[in-house]
Amino acid sequence: QNELGVSWSFAEDQGYNTPYNRMMMKKRGVVQEMLPYAQYLPQMPYVRESRRIVGVKTLVADDLERGENARHFQTSVAMGDYYMDLHHTYEALEFDLDRSDFTQDNGPFQIPFEVFIPAELDGFLPAEKNFSQSRLVSGATRLQPVTMLTGQAVGTMASLAVSQGVQPRDLDPLRVQLELLDEGSTLIQRWYADVPWNSELWKAVQVLCLYRIMDRPGPITSKNGMGFSATENWGTDRPISEKEAVDGIRKLALVLGYTLNDPTQDAFRGSSLTGARFYELAGQISADLTRLVQIPWAGEAITQKDFALFSLKCIRKVYR
Question: pTM of the prediction?
Answer without folding.
Answer: 0.85
